[in-house]
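Quick question, first post here. What does this chain look like in 3D?
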Amino acid sequence: MIPAGFDYHAPRSVADAVKLLGELGPEAKLLAGGHSLLPMMKLRFAEPGHLVDLGRIAELRGISEAGKEIRIGAMTTEHELLRSKLLAEKVPLLVEGAGWIADPQVRYKGTIGGDISHGDPANDQPALMLALEASFVLTGPKGERVVKADGYFLGLYSTQLAEDEILTQIRIPLPAPGSGWSYQKLKRKTGDFATAATAVMLQMKGKSVASVAIALTNAGPTVLKARDAEAYLKGKAIDDASLNEAARLAMKICQPTPDQRGDAEYKVAMCGEMTRRALQAAHARAKG
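> Answer (accepted):
Ran it through. Tokens below.
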């Protein structure tokens, strides 16, 4: 199908983009990579009167280290994440996760900020952000505010981002030295969304878990934090018994939607399996 008519705007600065959003009101939609919004417009599921393209705003791109955190501009592409030497050294989970996203064509245009802002539970970045304890810089007419990823995702296509705000930057605290990581994803074919996926960050103290973060993709109406599984694992060794219980606790919170990727029961089971695999891989990489 052909999208409904709209006016196109291409601001050159964040300030200009915020001003446009204020002037145009709820009829305006932000355009990042476009891989989520444009298909919805073609199907007439979304019919914005105005598109505000962020692609020409240079200050929204880039990856840098500032103090004890990594800062990433929201218009940085998935391909740039995948190729970043800084991320490979400091935040390898993000590099591994970017490699699972869609296919090379999408990764060249799709942006980390667009992935996060869309609020789709099937997108990969939300789970990675929860596992990495990230925060987001939201810029609007009243200035900047910083919100944690944990709590940012409210429901299906719903986040804390207000209509007159732009997600401008992602901030990720540097993982503790020796931390293990993994993003395990089951999908039917290259380019598909996850049937189920799990992101894990793990820190060991000797043979026991010092801290762990577990986040689930496409397991409910929004990205899920497996808090009971995290609490259970703390202080325990990673072995068959603890892996089985952590997987069970992760499965307990899943509420997937049946679709062509499988029925609910299958998806829940695969979520448990991805959790088990992610914990095993993170444990193998962790240096207690």
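The domain at 192-285 is CATH 3.30.390.50 (Enolase-like; domain 1).
The chain has three domains: 7-53, 63-171, 192-285.
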